[in-house]
Amino acid sequence: MAKKEMEVVKGLDLEKYMGRWYEIASIPSRNQPKNGVNTRANYSLNEDGTVKVVNETWSDGKRSSIEGVAYKADPSSQEAKFKVKFYLPPFLPIIPVVGNYWVLYIDGDYQYVLVGEPSRKNLWILCRNTQLNEEIYNELLQKAKDEGYDVTKLHRTPQSEPPPETDEGPKDTKGIWWIKSILGK
């Protein structure tokens, strides 16, 4: 049986979407640390209409980050289907890796969002705060199930309160997290 076409948000207000989002849960991509905590994304508009993406996480007590750029998959479409390009490895960024970033649901106040991609292998629940109301979380789980995701693979992301500052603590400048992720750790 063929999977149904995913419902994607139409008319996403990119300016309202910009800023910091905390990862509440994910079915992580293979390039994310498996033991990451305090994971978050920071989005800002570039002059050319693309979005600067900075993903941060703390793994084994060290902060690691990766920068990329997001752009509309089809600039003429109203659907919130984006491509995100990162360069790997983070310590010698030479290999472009492009992934899908589809906004499947966002609340009217732009406080929480469900993000996925067409293969249904990766899923993210993001929030403007480090914690999300359990009832809302369960509603987002149901939306993900309705879109064909196996939510049993979802991993809750530990978040500190208050969250660490960006420059707090030692940094992983060698990309150890990335090497571990390639090895499946």
UniProtKB/TrEMBL annotation:
**Any matching Pfam family:** Lipocalin_2
- Which residues are listed as membrane-spanning? none
Do you know which CDD domains this protein is assigned to?
lipocalin_Blc-like
Q: Which GO terms describe its cellular component?
A: cytoplasm
Region feature Disordered, mapped onto this chain? 154-175
Question: Which BP terms in the Gene Ontology apply to this protein?
Answer: lipid metabolic process; response to reactive oxygen species
Q: What is this protein called?
A: Temperature-induced lipocalin-1
Q: Which family does it belong to?
A: Belongs to the calycin superfamily. Lipocalin family.
InterPro entries, alphabetized:
Calycin (IPR012674), Lipocalin_ApoD (IPR022271), Lipocalin_bac (IPR002446), Lipocalin_Blc-like_dom (IPR047202), Lipocalin_CS (IPR022272), Lipocln_cytosolic_FA-bd_dom (IPR000566)
Q: Which intervals hold domain Lipocalin/cytosolic fatty-acid binding?
A: 12-159
